[in-house]
Input
Amino acid sequence: MNVLQPNKKTSIITLLTNGVSQREIGRKVRVDRKTIRKYARMADNHNDTQTTADISKSPGVATGSGESLDQNPPPRPPAFEAPSTRDEPMPAHARSACEEHRPWIEEQVRLGRNAVSIYQDLVELYAFEHRYNSVKRFCRALRQKNPGRYDRLEFPPGEEAQVDYGLGAPTRLPGKTTYRRPRLFVMTLKYSRRCFRKVVWKSSKEIWAKLHEEAFRYFGGVTRYVVLDNLKEGVITPDIYEPELNPLYASVLAHYGAVADPCRVADPDRKGSVENAIQHTQDTALKGRRFESIEEQNQWLMHWEEQWAAKRIHGRMKRQVQEMFEEEKPFLQSLPLNSFAYFSQETRTVQDDGAIQVHDCYYAALPAKLHTKVMVRIYDQEIEIIDPKTLEVIRRHVKGQRKGMVFMEENDRIFNPSRQTGRLLAQAAAIGPCTETLCKKLFEGEGRLEHRRMRGIIALARKHSAGHIEQAAKIALERGLRSSRIIRKLVERIVEADLAEKEKTSSALTQEHSLIRSPQDYALFFETHAAGNGCHPHILQ
Output
């Protein structure tokens, strides 16, 4: 039988007591891991009063050599307990390597971070040189020692309401013999703990918002804040800093003058009042009950709230709930005169004709740019087109009642005959008054069909001057000409005649000019110069 020296046995027990890992004990004491595990099991199975001598009597373990049977037993080890439960300070050699970082680690544990992330940050931030196991043991001890701490939130009357879903009692499905538990909606006033309860078969964005409206009207007023969970009916994108609310839900709360305050993710204790109200409803009002219809269950919930829940004495406040509600009611915000106009919101793309398609009807979206995205709010009787960047309403239209309806004014059409005519007449006026008058007469005669002739006349300005076109337009008005082809020929003739006149005038001026010599003078000059007479042009008379 192998002999385990007393000092090593004492070291093993002491290190196990201080929470050192078995791997680390084996490295320090140089003892097989199986022996260490045996002592660990013994420590778990024996109480704190057992001594080292008692453990040493276990079969298969010798506590000394054969030559020292009369040796004094080793000193008694301390009671086997977690270091975190001791009242006396630990000696320096037994302190955890994480002790100097205790405040920071406690804060991280309170935030719910695991030991791996804490160890990584210790290495990165504090140059921690010890092993991960020490951090793991330290965090485990902190979690056992320090339960979660929560602030007791108190709010003045009319400040806050909390909402959430739970499960109602089994209820018969309409037209069937089977039962199913519907969803239980509860809104609780934080100050008075007065509640509104209602069960629904299914939830949606609109149902969620309408339940809030019913609750506000049941209480006769509105709180300033509504605390909710991050369910999809209320919150599209949860975020600790800027959560994105469902547009319909945000609009309903804005209509009633309330502000949504979503909880942080995985933080249900922030709305503990409504959580307790749901649990109290399930355990007291609905436990063991079954209803034949959802209306029957809602009637029972309303009766139970008025008869029992509102008259109970609140356990902490020691006051009746109804009494506190009467005290809170004057502090609630007044209800608006009109109910909220519900809508569905969608995103549409502006098509090539400047319109959007909604439920097989077409609505003008100008001045929105082509091929851009716009928000569309669809009400019962109308639709709104909204700029997604500024959230400003661009257009409002009456909602189409049948498929294929088009809601576009003349100015909204990309190919608008009147807008085309106006642009053509403006171009004609830039050429001259006669051209403008001619184009007007063309349009008055045949309307849109004369647009082609008007474009043909205006296109002459690409090659010819405005003066020539004006002359041709004047002649066309005098003679009643309407063909753009004839007017083009007329302009070309005017241009040709003008060029011929300029050439004639230029030729006459050249023959009569006194400074220009005659051809005979130049012939005489060349003959004289070729004969070698040395005669120069200036000598010629």
